[in-house]
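HUMAN: Spend a minute on the protein record below and explain its fold to me.
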Amino acid sequence: MIGYYVHHHGSGHLTRARLLAARLGEPVTGLSSLPRPDDWAGEWAQLAHDAKPKPATAGDVTAGGVLHWAPTGHDGFTARMTAISSWVERARPRLVVVDVSVEVTLLVRLLGVPVVVVAMRGDRTDRAHTLAYDAAEALIALWPAALASRSWPARWIDKTCHTGGFSRLDDVARDTEPVAAQAGSVLLLWGRGGVGTGPSLERAAAASGPQWSWRRPHPRADAATIWSELTRAEVVVTHAGQNAVAEVAASRRPSVVVAETRPFDEQQETAGVIDTSGIAVGLSTWPADDAWPGLLTQARSRGGDRWREWSDLDGVERAVGLLERVGTRS
């Protein structure tokens, strides 16, 4: 039995959990305040939310910088930690994957269960991340070892499985012949399901000139539709979240990767390393309107073949192999 804690923010954490749970040869229990996915085969422990309602007290939610989020006097936070502890006592898991939470990592390890942490890019050398990453049995990094995070100490690198990016599109990418892109077609992939509160497609399209035609996916587009949209685009413009980057990497399309503001400069680091390695055009912030013609031309010139360096489409298998090895040791 393996447990998998899924953070409720964004869609990438849940996507990874579903991919890994489907490939592991043993039951996997999901632990999350998100609702159970329809295709989840194992148990699902629905957790209380740890920030709704907003904590009433003005106390230090970081416990003096040791943690990231541990509000005092919050019924939801107390209930979720109690539920995780009760499940561990009842289920006796061999291993728990945490994607992501410093507090859950430490709780589970203090209960005597090995933890594998799905790591994130950016400067994670703050006190709380250091505690969690040090306590983890192993780390999963969703990028290739050749582009390892320079801020990480050697002791983290030594226990890290660099899977490269992996996504729900990897299987179809492996089994599908490449198709010709539509000349001048630009796909804006932004936010959950391809739509968010991000940049204005209309402004970017107007600034790009008549040779470029922009579009974005439908808000509820499924994986097959996203794949179709990606593969017919000549250039993809996306934010630098790990899940979005992995999906674009699977499509091997020329891209402009734009960082959104995130804690610990996660997306800035991702976009930066993608740019300096020559995989795609990477930007630290949304550009001025008049920059778009040059950026799209630059992305097209770079091409998309070097996305193979980010994802060779075997990342899920590497992650599963790590979890099987750690589970056996424990």
